[in-house]
TrEMBL record:
Lineage: Bacteria, Pseudomonadati, Pseudomonadota, Gammaproteobacteria, Vibrionales
Record domain Protein SirB1 N-terminal: where: 36-186
Name by which UniProt lists this protein: Protein SirB1 N-terminal domain-containing protein
Leader peptide range in chain numbering: none
SUPFAM superfamilies: TPR-like
Pfam families registered for this protein in UniProt: TPR_9, Transglut_core2
Gene3D superfamilies listed in its UniProt record: Tetratricopeptide repeat domain (1.25.40.10)
Transmembrane segments annotated in the record for this chain: none
Similarity-based family: Belongs to the UPF0162 family.
InterPro entries noted in UniProt: SirB1_N, TPR-like_helical_dom_sf
Amino acid sequence: MSMIELFDEDFDAMELVEGALVLNQAINPETRVAWAEQTLVNMTYEAEAYLDDAAEPKARLDAFLQLFYQQWGFSGDHEAYFESRNAFIDQVLEHRKGIPVSLGALLLYFSSRLGFPLKPVMFPTQFLIQIDWSGEEPVYLNPFSGEYVSKHTLQAWLIGSQGPLAKLKPKHLRVSDHPTIIGRWLALLKSALMREERYTLALKCTNLALTFVPDDPYEIRDRGFIYQQLECHQIALSDYQYFIEHCPDDPAAELLKNQVNLLRTTAVTIH
């Protein structure tokens, strides 16, 4: 099945982790999908054996979170937050380190098997887990730390990223669909790979992104940058020109005009 078909219909039908593995493999064919799937199955058995079925649901969830963060040792990668390995599920399972979205996807996977009411929320600053006990107000877990976060803290995060007038609104805490999350995951992976100068893999990210937002000038600008690094100057030139034409008022357009002039001279020299 091609990625294009997947983006259209199947991500919502899949577990988020499964969707992420499809995405990971489409970007890097060396992703160990079968190994990751088997590891997840084994860990589910381990969790089932660890948890007391008779316990009250909230106590069971607490015990599971203890297992996930303490015994299994999953944690947010503070040292190397922006490294691509934190967004590849097989590597997260191996190193036990990740970012909110990869750790959150694992929590959701186990929860769906263990019967916990967890849901994904793409909060403006990071990925969150909503826990929805029936008849109660939802509570929110930060998958990066394994700690619960209050509305007060979420408001503070929002102000930190959007400025002093930002207000926490119900839309910020809406449950997200899988295609939206996978789209954000793809953007995270692309910027990590660009930072690591792994341009061939970054190009795959951009091409995938362009399958579901075909004319996005920002995606095309990034692709131009990647092609420039790969020394495909002619394609870089037309991508930059596309961006300048469609976003003339963007501050980046002025900078790119210089690049275009440079590339024109380079392209002439090469051919």
